[in-house]
Write a structure and sequence with these properties.
Elements: E1 9-13, H1 25-39, E2 43-48, E3 63-66, H2 71-81, E4 85-87, H3 92-104, H4 107-110, E5 114-115, H5 120-127, H6 129-139, E6 146-149, H7 152-162, E7 166-170, E8 180-182, H8 185-198, E9 204-208, E10 214-222, E11 228-236, E12 249-251, H9 258-275, E13 279-287, E14 294-300, H10 305-314, H11 318-326, E15 335-336, E16 340-341, E17 352-358, E18 379-385, H12 388-398, H13 417-423, H14 431-440, H15 445-452, H16 456-473, H17 482-490, H18 495-502, H19 506-515, E19 521-526, E20 534-539, E21 553-557, H20 568-583, E22 587-592, E23 607-610, H21 615-625, E24 629-631, H22 637-648, H23 658-665, H24 667-677, E25 684-687, H25 690-700, E26 704-708, E27 718-720, H26 723-732, E28 742-746, E29 752-761, E30 765-776, E31 786-788, H27 795-812, E32 815-825, E33 828-835, H28 842-849, H29 853-861, E34 879-885, E35 906-912, H30 915-926, E36 935-940, H31 945-957, E37 961-964, H32 966-974, E38 980-981, H33 992-997, E39 1003-1007, H34 1010-1013, H35 1018-1026, E40 1031-1032, H36 1035-1050, H37 1058-1064
Helix pairs in contact: 1-11, 3-5, 5-6, 7-8, 13-14, 14-16, 15-16, 18-19, 20-29, 22-23, 25-26, 30-36, 31-36
């Protein structure tokens, strides 16, 4: 069937900011869809609030709207752009929910927009728990016994009938948000109230527990001719009870009989036919290995997290194909490398894929490391090997958690078998590492199966690794026998891990195996749906089947798994580097292990190596490909950590040198350079023990900012106010030592923070923008809202920052990009730190200022002079406000307070003609939106009362009712602000908790600062998260909020495409890199 000609312009709704449960896999899906649809000749209107993604670059779609994702905004864009069709299933749960809401609100009918790919009623069939249950009943497919409810009382009734434990599943949510497994009525009440609040329709399903059953997934694709294929069979190693986003899984299924796989496939085909999805669908089943009963858990009638994994695991680009199918193309018109056309597709491949999640529990004080039905992972890795053991161990070394193997993690090796079994009572992020040591201590495979429900085959494979490791340990201090080394490499043992086990340098292991001819061989994953494409993986279990060309080539090292502090922004930079290198005539080679990203799409680079970012793997690729150089400054801390060792091994690093990177990260060296240049920094010291720390504190004076050296995302960073706080920090700081000292800086109270990104060729520098942070110093830059251009900084300070940035970049001889962070206190500009690499703000600056920073930086690394670009400073006629998006809804026990350690998973951008309107838009995009009327609660510390009085007066002028806690209320009343006193929780009833629960409060402003108030009032902030009430924890953000509300009330900022904003800056069509 040919492409549809009744539609010319298609709207795609993106998934918004990166959050737990909905990450950059949708950036990958959406980018693929745009590419497919533009190739078919359609005009694309893209709407997404996320500035960090390649998807929202101006050349990916014809019109790109970085706007809040809500019905009102989308209706305005539809009215303006008049698309013929809406493709709803590429923006995750967000895109699906909004498409359904637009249909129900009558917006699509009003403007003649039809939904393609999946109809609005199909979305309901898949997402509404009641309708889904009815559909499955008609199809004769078993489900866990369940009932959908809208109240806690009904939930208790249903749970009583089913028997505990029960599973709570909120409708229309992502990542299991608000759900959980509960064992008693008290837990039920807590989780149900949370789940009802999380669901957009206030509905939760109370479901029979299938805890411990096998969890199995299929990715299927259907076209308009009703041709259906199965792209991938995924087996979750973790049993039911752990969310699939947290679950360790493999493809193909390694332990599932062919007849069961056939049954699941037949069920899946029935389901997609009944629901009517055109394109990809993810279907999740549970199977009881004892009775053989199979039940369906849920379907996702859209591309999903598993779709991205399935795409990368099989070489089948699901989103790319789904977009074509939605527009009338059928599977028998799309090429298939093996059997002609895609309707004949079957999963194949002589390799095993492992996905392993990465978590960030350490970022959230008070969070329990416990895995359940609500997703907690912030990222994941994928590895490919010829056998399970090889792929499993590659996945572990891909995680970048300081472990190259499974053994000797934390103190698990020192625990007894009984202690280890005790740790396995509940699933945690450490479960595989604990099981490994339990096997070493003699715990049986059967005992571990009983405790974890992980199938015996996987545990036996692990036991074989443990047994081999014990043989290796018998040779500690000396070289391994040749045969044992060969076996270890075939089973996936990394050079670095073997070195650790034997007490030998990694280089000695590498030299030994290379002498024996034990080197990584390479094989390919062919790509379906396109002609002559593949990507590559290493193995020690086969011959090398991949040729290297003699072309000029450059390797780009990616960022590895997503984590807090290193997210999609770095993948954005790597993708731009690949595009730019290709345009410059180089063969581009990408190395990365993250299945969610655009950098690991089959055609982003000329050659993709789906590999861990370790010395062993990168060096092996370098030696095979013999490139002119390697780019390390775009992938965040991951490649930087390798830079010195790679350079020492003879690898040519392009751009800024590893020594310069080290100088900037070594606080002592960097301070000496700043002193020599006469540039001010806050007074600081380094300490390797408590004595040195106390001496430094005496010299500098409290409060202090303390942190470990060499970290990203403010890991382990805290403000301490006195000696007790400093002692506690040093006692608990991870591995403080002469090699890893802690850094101690004077904390500049009430300072305004700013930062600048700059481009440099080693001699000249260009600063596209200075960013002003809205939160004061003490909040990590990744968590602080910021504005371009600055809203309150004086011209004098902006010029000083630009001049200092140019001086520092020149002194460091930066070639590429640099980010420098500043604090302005008492009319003085201080340098806080310099990062001679891509920062997380590169995409933001690029989009707001219409300067393609990553592209230009890549060309600078290739030797092009900065002057040749003709860059000139331009005053933007608009403001861009970035706001961080925080995952506290997934950690309900954690106090949602901002501080010097980064906690955000993603960000949004609001663009408008004024700062206030841009700030309001950013908050609207981050959700929940600021209220335009109603009641505001003020509860602030003494230090903030003066600032909050002005805020209170503005709220009063806007007609808001003001509630305040005792101290704040007394102060405000003395300042002439009308307010009513409200009781704190311990002061009696009715109190703040009652008012929040009753929906009487619409905005909360609560500022914790200082030692005591870090712990006060956390219940206010936790309640705000639960009931989705906007809450603000800094006085600076409160000022911005009331300004935004006031400006928005005078007139809503209209919708405007990024291309229009860029034309306002005098920039025409984007460069070739954006056209991809």
């Amino acid at each position: 069937m040919p492409r549809r000609d009744d539609i010319k312009k298609i709207m795609i709704i993106g998934s918004g900011p990166i959050v737990i449960g909905q990450a950059c896999e949708f950036d990958y899906s959406g980018t693929q869809a745009c590419k497919a649809l533009r190739a078919l000749g359609y005009k694309i209107v893209l709407v997404n609030s996320n500035p960090a993604t390649i998807m929202t670059d101006p050349g990916i779609a014809d019109a790109t709207y970085i706007e809040p994702l809500n019905v009102q905004t989308l209706a305005e864009i539809i009215e303006k752009e008049r698309p013929d069709a809406l493709l709803p299933n590429l923006g995750g749960q967000t895109g699906l929910n909004l498409s359904s809401q637009l249909a129900k609100a009558g917006v699509l009918a009003k403007f003649g927009v039809r939904i393609v790919g999946v109809e609005a009623d199909a979305i309901e069939k898949g997402e509404d728990r009641i309708i889904f249950k009815e559909t499955m009943k008609k199809l004769g497919i078993d489900m866990p016994r369940s009932e959908a409810v809208y109240s806690a009382a009904d939930a208790e009734r249903v749970a009583s009938g089913l028997g505990y434990p029960v599973v709570i599943r909120p409708a229309y949510t992502l990542g299991g948000t608000g759900g959980g497994l509960v064992y008693n009525v008290e837990e039920l009440r807590v989780v149900v109230s949370r789940g009802i609040a999380a669901s957009i329709v206030g509905q939760v399903l109370i479901e029979e527990s299938v805890l411990g059953w096998e969890e199995l997934e299929l990715e299927v694709v259907r076209d308009s001719k009703d041709q259906i294929i199965t792209v991938c069979f995924i087996e979750n190693v973790d049993a039911m009870g752990v969310h699939t986003g947290d679950s360790f899984c493999v493809a193909p299924m390694l332990n599932v009989p062919p007849e069961l796989q056939k049954k699941l496939q037949e069920y899946s085909y029935r389901i997609v036919r009944a629901i009517g999805v055109i394109g990809g669908t993810n279907i999740q089943f549970a199977h009881d290995p004892r009775t053989g009963r199979v039940v369906i858990i849920e379907i996702n009638p859209r591309t999903s997290r598993s779709s991205a994994l399935a795409s990368k695991a099989t070489g089948f680009p699901i989103a790319f194909i789904s977009a074509q199918l939605a527009c009338g193309i059928t599977l028998d018109e799309i090429p298939y490398w093996r059997d002609g056309t895609l309707e004949k597709y079957t999963p194949s491949g002589d390799y095993v894929v492992v996905k392993f999640a990465r978590w960030a529990f350490e970022k959230f004080k008070g969070a329990q490391d416990r895995l359940g039905t609500q997703m907690k992972a912030v990222g994941e890795v994928m590895s490919i090997g010829k056998n399970y053991k090889e792929a499993f161990q590659k996945a572990i070394r891909s995680l970048e958690i300081g472990r190259h193997g499974l053994g000797f993690a934390k103190d698990f090796n020192r625990k007894s078998a009984d202690e280890l079994l005790g740790l396995l009572k509940e699933a945690t992020s450490e479960r595989q590492f604990i099981m490994y040591e339990a096997l070493r201590k003699g715990v049986s495979v059967e005992a571990l199966y009983e405790r974890t429900h992980i199938k015996p085959w996987f545990i036996r494979q692990m036991k074989e690794l443990v047994d081999l490791e014990e043989k290796i340990l018998a040779h500690k201090g000396k070289a391994l026998p040749d045969a044992l080394l060969a076996q270890a490499k075939k089973d996936g043992f990394a050079d670095a891990y073997l070195g650790r086990l034997l007490g030998l340098p990694e280089a000695r292991i590498r030299e030994h195996r290379k002498r024996l001819g034990i080197v990584e061989a390479w094989d390919q994953v062919p790509v379906s749906g396109v002609k002559d494409a593949a990507y590559y993986y290493s193995t020690y279990n086969g011959a090398d089947k991949v040729a290297a060309s003699s072309r000029r080539k450059v390797i780009v090292l990616g960022g590895g798994p997503n984590r807090i502090g290193q997210g999609i922004e770095f993948d954005y930079c790597c993708v731009h580097a690949a595009f730019t290198l290709r345009d410059a005539g180089y063969e581009t080679i990408m190395v990365n292990c993250n299945p969610e990203t655009v950098s690991t799409d089959y055609d982003t680079s000329d050659k993709l190596y789906f590999e861990p970012l370790t010395m062993e793997d990168v060096l092996s690729i370098y030696e095979k490909e013999k490139p002119e150089g390697v780019i390390v400054q775009f992938g965040g801390q991951t490649p930087l950590n390798l830079a010195n060792d790679l350079a020492a091994a003879g690898v040519r690093i392009l751009g800024t040198t590893p020594d310069t990177i080290d100088l900037a990260e070594d606080r002592d060296r960097f301070r000496k350079m700043m002193d020599r240049l006469g540039i001010l920094m806050p007074e600081s010291a380094m300490a390797s023990n408590i004595g040195e720390a106390l001496e430094a504190a005496g010299n500098i004076g409290y409060p202090l900012m303390v942190r470990p050296s060499y970290v990203l995302g403010g890991r382990g960073m805290e403000i301490v106010y006195d000696e007790d706080g400093l002692r506690t920090y040093v006692d608990t700081a991870a591995s403080v030592s002469p090699d890893r000292p802690i850094l101690i800086d004077k904390f500049l109270e009430d300072a305004i923070e700013a930062e600048a990104d700059a481009l440099s060729d080693g001699a000249s520098t260009f600063v596209p923008a200075v960013m002003e942070h809205i939160e004061l110093a003490g909040i990590h830059s990744g968590d602080s809202a910021c504005v371009i251009p600055p809203a309150t900084l004086t011209g004098k300070h902006i010029r000083a920052i630009e001049e200092l940035t140019a001086r520092i970049a020149r002194e460091l001889k930066v070639v590429g990009v640099i980010n420098i962070q500043y604090a302005i206190a008492k009319d003085t500009v201080y340098v806080l730190e310099a990062n001679p690499r891509a920062s997380r703000t590169v995409p933001l600056v690029s989009k707001v200022c219409a300067v393609s920073m990553a592209r230009i930086a890549t060309e600078l690394m290739l030797g092009r002079p900065l002057a040749s670009f003709g860059l000139a400073a331009r005053r933007a006629p608009h403001f861009g406000v970035k706001e961080a998006v925080l995952p506290f809804n997934m950690f309900p026990d954690v106090d949602p307070v901002l501080g010097p350690e980064m906690r955000s998973t993603g960000e949004v951008l609001g663009m408008a003609p004024s700062f206030g309107l841009a700030y309001f838009k950013a908050e609207e995009a981050a959700q929940p939106a600021l209220p335009l009327k109603g009641t505001v609660l003020l509860s602030v510390t003494d230090a903030d009362k003066k600032a909050i009085a002005a805020v209170g007066r503005q709220f009063q002028a806007l007609g808001f009712r003001i509630l305040a806690t005792a101290g704040t209320c007394d102060y405000l009343q003395k300042q002439g602000v009308l307010c009513e006193k409200i009781l704190k929780m311990h002061e009696g009833r009715p109190n703040i908790g009652d008012a929040v629960t009753n929906g009487e409060i619409h905005l909360i402003i609560n500022t914790p600062a200082g030692k005591q108030s870090q712990y006060d009032d956390s219940y206010i902030r936790k309640a705000a998260i639960k009931y989705r009430i906007p809450y603000i924890t800094t006085s600076a953000a409160a000022r911005a909020a009331v300004q935004g509300i006031g400006e928005h009330r005078k007139g809503r900022a209209g919708v405007k495409s990024l291309q229009e904003y860029h034309r306002d800056l005098g920039v025409g069509k984007p460069g070739k890199d954006s056209e991809r």
